[in-house]
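If you are new to this repository, start here. Below is one unmodified record pulled from the training split, so you can see the exact layout before writing a loader.
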Amino acid sequence: MIDQGRIDEIRHLEFSRGFRGYEPREVDETLAKISEEMSELLTAYRTQQENLARAESLMGEVEKKEKLLSDTLVEARLLAQNTVDAARKEAEEIVRDADLSARQIISDAEERRLRAEEWFSSTREGWLFDLARIRKETGQMIQSLENLENQWNALTWPKQAVDPERGDSRSHEAD
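And here is the target side for that same chain:
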């Protein structure tokens, strides 16, 4: 791996000089250029490593959030399904209870209707019987009243005779 120490080593590298060797100034310039480029590469490499570490850290956070989101979504779906199932079950119970209640109300109403019809029928028969009895008795009373009226009209009041001695009037029948 390249580090700053290796770059410094290249920068200060010295070659032995031989007969017909390289031009020292060119070698020094080339080494300086290489060490400078390596220094830039090392800086870029370190920047990229830092960026990679940040990206990996962010990626880890994103993966954690994604997992949490996925787990939450699964739980939400399960909860929603459970809620729908519970609501459906409760609705079925409410409908069943309402149906039973309605049937009971109808049954009670039918029973009351039958009792009312029986009462009306028996009461009507009693009233009709009483009405017939009252008509008969009224007819008999009218007949008795007519007989009494006829007898009354047939009655005459006795004539009164005046007693001269006493000066009062008395009935002939009393004598």
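Two things worth knowing about this chain: The two ends are 177 Å apart (CA to CA). Strands lie at 160-163, 168-171.
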